[in-house]
Amino acid sequence: MNNPYDHTHKERDYWLEKLSGQIMKTVFPPDEQGEGGKSASLSLSRFSFEIVDRLFSQLLKVSNNSPVRLHILLTAGWLMLLHRYTGNTDIIIGAPTYRQEVEGELVNTVLALRCGVTGNTTVRELLMQVGQTVLEADKHQNYPIHTLIYKLNLPDTGHDFPLFDLSVLLEGIHERGYLDRIRQNMIVSFNQGSDSLKGIIEYNGALYSEATIARIAGHFTTLMASALFDVNTPVSSLELISEAEREEILTRFNTKAEEFVFNKTVWQYVDEFAQRTPDATALIFEGVPYTYKRVGEEVNRICAELQQKGVGEDCTVGILMERSPMMAESILAVWKAGGAYIPLDISYPVSRLVGILEDSSTWVLLGDSQTLPQGLSDEYKGIILDPNTIVNTATLPAHRQGAGFKNMGSLA
Question: Please, what is the end-to-end C-alpha distance for the chain in angstroms?
Answer without folding.
Answer: 84
